[in-house]
Amino acid sequence: MAPTQPQPPPPQTNNTLDRVHAARISKTWPLLSHGGPLVTRNSRPKGMDNPGVLCYRRAVLQCLLHVPELYRYLLSARRCRCREKGCVACALRRLAEVYWSVRETEEVQGVVEGVDGALRSFVGHKDFGQYDFLRNGVQADAMEFLEGLVNMIRAREVEVSGRGRSISRLFNVTTRRTWTCEDCGRTSALRAKDLAIRVALPKELEGQPFDSYLRACFQDEDLPDLRCESDACVVDHPEGRNRTRRTRIVHGPELLIIQLLRFDFDLKVMNLVKNPYRVPFRERLDLSEWTVDNTALKYQLHGVVAHRGASTSSGHYLAALQCQKGSDVATANDMSIGISSDREWLLEPRRGDGDEFDSYLLVYQKVGGVMRVVD
Ligand SMILES: [Zn+2]
Ligand SMILES: [Zn+2]
């Protein structure tokens, strides 16, 4: 009888997400955060009261609260502690504390109102005229709300520390656009920052995998009007030439927003018209192909803001959320919370009664990175 061969050890990997998928560690919310486990006393989502048409704010706040790195950012020691009524950063920190504490859902309502109040007074005092819609109770676009919120937190961070680098590292997608002049060989590079990767939804991509949408976002552009940065070259070659410009990611944020550009202005009806087809985004997102030098850049989905209705400034918004218990997803529809183990709820948000919504903002957290608080 032949002796029993020793079994080879299972393949080892250091990547947290790989280990999660190999089911060797549990898929819990804190483990997907960098810098060690993040333990909160409550782990269940809580509803948020909507006094009228503020569902767009509630859906965005729910998604943000479900990203561990944002929680870590808000609670880190160097953040604002002024506790003034008009401080958006303190109001959001207070919301995160109460939301993930054992306090009752009713207590969340007061602090959510505190966020509304802080936005109202901040817009009034700090020259944020473009976000005037935050001063009153009108319905607005969820992405515009998110932009306003981040810009106000950044303004406060700058006031407190003289810099706004932490919030920028948390949210900004930094890209580098390069092109080379065929006449003189000079390469020009331009850095750009944005709060989101904005993904167009042309009809011809309907039914294609999500990678096709990203490829379209990062495809080389032929730009006839791009002129060489060398004055001498422009004099020598007065005729314009087509230039090919390439865009690649230089810095991937800890918290990545993908905005699905569902709304196009239709000249026939003189209004925004929504493109409602389903976009097949996934829970895991690999952007490595679109970074400079193909640096690894991977993300995990934590929330989706979804919308039902004809225009972003009407209809209804809700949020689909990754729960702290890794196998569960939740739908947060104002005060009502539905929890399910059906992962499709995250990829195709619905109200819980089968009523479907169109995904609009996808909120991802970086996998395997390290968030450094730099100021
Ligand atoms: Zn403050
Ligand atoms: Zn040139």
TrEMBL record:
GO terms for biological process: protein deubiquitination; proteolysis. Residues 46-367 form the USP domain. It catalyses: Thiol-dependent hydrolysis of ester, thioester, amide, peptide and isopeptide bonds formed by the C-terminal Gly of ubiquitin (a 76-residue protein attached to proteins as an intracellular targeting signal). The keyword NADP does not apply. Gene3D superfamilies: Cysteine proteinases. One of its GO terms (molecular function) is cysteine-type deubiquitinase activity. Its EC number is 3.4.19.12. It comes from the Eukaryota. GO terms for cellular component: cytosol; nucleus. PROSITE patterns: USP_2, USP_3. It is an enzyme of class 3 (hydrolase). Keywords: Hydrolase, Protease, Thiol protease, Ubl conjugation pathway. Belongs to the peptidase C19 family. This is ubiquitinyl hydrolase 1. It comes from Cladosporium halotolerans.
